[in-house]
Amino acid sequence: MEITYYGQSCFLLDLGGTKVLFDPFISPNPLASAIELDSIECDYILLSHGHQDHVADAEYFLKKTGATLVANFEIVSWYQNKGVENGHPMNIGGKVHLPFGTVKMVNAIHSNALPDGTYGGAAAGFVVESGEKTFYFAGDTALTLDMKLIGERYRLDFAFLPIGDNFTMDVEDALVAANYVNVKKIIGMHYDTFPYIEIDHVEALELARRQQKELILMEIGQTVEL
C-alpha cells in the first residue's frame, strides 16, 4: 500500500490500484506550496467533516476527476448542490462495500460546518478494510472511549491520528487512542499547519518511543509503503 502525504490531514492511498484521497486541503496550505494539484488523480474522496482545512480542494478534485465522494449525508448533499455528480452518503455506524474494500463510518468528537457555514452533520472517522491493510482514519477528534470498540471489532495494521492539540487530540492522547485501537504504528496528522497546532517533533517522537509506538511524521509530498 502506497501512502502519499499532502499536508494537514490529506493523504492519497493507492489501494490495489484504486486511488483514495482523504480530506484534501492543499492549495491554501503554504506548507504544501510545492504540490501541483494537476498531478494528483483519485477515484474516491473521503471527507471526515466539512471544515475548510479538510475540504478546500474537494470540489476541484471531484469535478476534475469524476471521483466518488464518500462522506456523511449532509456533506454529500451540499456538494451535489454544487454540481458534483458522484456521491455516496453515509452516517455514523454505517458501512459501504467499494471496489477497494469496506468503509465503516465511525464516531469523531468534533464540531462540523461547511465552508459557507452550512450545518455539516456529524464529524466522523473511517475504518477501511482493504485487500492489503486495515486501518483507522480518525479525522479530527478528541480522545473517546468509542475507540475501544474499534480495537475490539477490527485488527488494525495502523492508524492515522491527529496530534496537533488545541482543536484535536495531542500526542499524549493519540498514544492512548493507539492503545484503545490496538495499533503500534501511528501516522500523525493535523499538526504544524497553523501556529495553534505546531508541535515539537523530537518530543513527540520520544513520547511515542517510550510507549513502544512507532510515530511516523511524514514530509509533505513524501510517499511511503506500508
Keywords:
alpha/beta; Metallo-beta-lactamase, Chain A; seven-stranded mixed beta sheet; UPF0173_UPF0282_UlaG_hydrolase; UPF0173 metal-dependent hydrolase ACFQHR_17185; hydrolase activity; Metallo-B-lactamas; RibonucZ/Hydroxyglut_hydro
What would your notes on this structure say?
The chain is of the alpha/beta class and 226 residues long. It has a single domain, classed as Metallo-beta-lactamase, Chain A (4-Layer Sandwich). The strands form two sheets. It has a seven-stranded mixed beta sheet with strand order 6-5-4-3-2-1-14, covered by helices on one side. Strand 5, helix 3 and strand 6 form a beta-alpha-beta unit.
Describe the structure concisely.
Helix content is 22%, strand content 28%. It is α/β, with parallel strands linked by helices and 226 residues long. α4 packs across α5.
What do we call the CATH homologous superfamily?
Ribonuclease Z/Hydroxyacylglutathione hydrolase-like
Residue runs with pLDDT of under 50 for 5 or more positions: none
What is the number of strand segments? 14
Mean pLDDT across residues: 98
In CATH, what is the class? Alpha Beta
What order do the helices and strands follow? EEEEHHEHEEEEEHEHEHEE
Major β-sheet, in short? 7 strands, mixed
Number of domains in the coordinates? Answer: 1
Which range best describes the helical content: under 10%, 10-25%, 25-40%, 40-55%, 55-70% or over 70%? 10-25%
